[in-house]
C-alpha cells in the first residue's frame, strides 16, 4: 500500500529525514514512535506531498508519487489528519466535514451517508454540527480532523499525533476509534509520542531517532524491547 525507500527530506542545510525505508501493507496499522524533533511529522508531510524529497522514493499502491502533487494524492487514496488538527476554525463542524469530501466529486447522497457515518463514530460531532470548529475543545477538534480525513474515503489514513495535548479519557476515545477503523480494514500509519497506546494498537512499528529508523518489529516486540521500554515507555 505504501513503500518508502531511502527517503530524505531537508529544511535548508538541516536534514530532518536521513534515508528512511518503511512499508505499510494493506490492512495494517503501522506506528512510528520517536521523540520530539525525530522527523515523524516531516515524514508524514513528505508522504502527502507537503514537503519535497531530497532523495529516495515514495510509492502508494505501487505508483511512484514523485510527480503527484499534494492535492492529487487524495486521488491516490491518501488522507492525513495533521498534527495540531488543522481544522478550519471559522467554519462549522459540518462545513469542515464537507470540505473533507470535496475531492470525491461524489453524489450528495454518498456524502450525506459519509457525514452520518462520522456522526455515528463521534456523536460529539453530531451534537456540535453547527458550532464553529475554532470553538471546539481540543478533543473535539481532533475527532473532527480524523472524520474530515475519512470523508475522502481514503485507502491510507495518516494520523499525526492524534493524542497530542488531550486528556486521558479523550485519548481513550481516540484510540478506540483507531481500533474500530483497523477492524474495518483501513490501512493506517500512525505517528505518536504516546508509545504504549500506539504500540498496543499497531501490527508493526518503527522507532525514528533523529531522522533514522533505529528499530522495527511487531507492536508486541517493541513493547517488550528493553531499549524501547527505557526510552519511550517509562513515563506512561
Ligand atoms: P514533534 O513530535 O515535536 O512534532 P517530529 O518527530 O514530528 O517532532 P518534525 O516536526 O518532523 O519532528 O521535525 C524534525 C526536524 O526538522 C526538527 O529538528 C525540526 O526543528 C525541523 N523542522 C521541522 N519543520 C521545519 C521547517 N519548516 N523548517 C525548518 N526546520 C524544520
Automatic annotation (TrEMBL):
Ranges for domain ABC transporter: 2-235
PROSITE patterns for this protein: ABC_TRANSPORTER_1, ABC_TRANSPORTER_2
Short name of one Pfam family: ABC_tran
MF-aspect GO terms: ATP binding; ATP hydrolysis activity; branched-chain amino acid transmembrane transporter activity
Record key words, sorted: Amino-acid transport, ATP-binding, Cell membrane, Membrane, Nucleotide-binding, Transport
Keyword Cell membrane included in the entry's annotation: yes
Coiled coil: none
GO biological process: L-amino acid transport
UniProt family annotation: Belongs to the ABC transporter superfamily.
Name of the protein: ABC transporter ATP-binding protein
Record lineage: Bacteria, Pseudomonadati, Pseudomonadota, Betaproteobacteria, Burkholderiales
Amino acid at each position: 500500500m505504501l513503500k518508502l525507500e531511502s527517503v530524505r527530506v531537508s529544511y535548508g542545510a538541516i536534514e530532518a529525514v536521513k534515508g528512511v525505508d518503511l512499508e505499510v501493507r494493506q490492512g495494517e496499522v503501522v506506528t512510528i514512535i520517536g521523540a520530539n524533533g525525530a522527523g515523524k511529522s516531516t515524514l508524514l508531510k513528505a508522504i502527502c506531498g507537503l514537503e519535497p524529497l531530497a532523495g529516495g522514493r515514495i510509492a502508494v499502491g505501487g505508483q511512484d508519487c514523485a510527480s503527484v502533487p499534494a492535492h492529487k494524492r487524495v486521488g491516490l487514496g491518501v488522507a492525513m489528519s495533521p498534527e495540531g488538527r488543522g481544522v478550519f476554525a471559522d467554519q462549522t463542524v459540518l462545513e469542515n466535514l464537507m470540505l473533507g469530501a470535496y475531492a470525491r466529486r461524489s453524489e450528495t447522497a454518498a456524502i450525506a451517508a459519509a457525514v452520518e457515518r462520522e456522526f455515528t463514530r463521534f456523536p460529539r460531532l453530531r451534537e456540535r454540527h453547527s458550532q464553529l470548529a475554532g470553538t471546539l475543545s481540543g478533543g473535539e477538534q481532533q475527532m473532527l480532523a480524523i472524520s474530515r480525513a475519512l470523508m475522502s474515503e481514503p485507502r491510507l489514513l495518516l494520523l499525526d499525533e492524534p493524542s497530542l495535548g488531550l486528556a486521558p479519557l479523550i485519548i481513550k476515545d481516540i484510540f478506540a476509534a483507531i481500533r474500530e477503523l483497523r477492524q474495518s480494514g483501513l490501512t493506517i500509519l500512525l505517528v505518536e509520542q504516546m508509545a504504549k497506546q500506539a504500540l498496543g494498537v499497531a501490527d508493526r512499528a518503527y522507532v525514528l531517532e533523529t531522522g533514522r529508523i533505529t528499530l522495527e518489529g511487531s507492536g508486541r516486540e517493541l513493547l517488550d524491547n528493553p531499549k524501547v521500554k527505557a526510552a519511550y515507555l517509562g513515563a506512561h
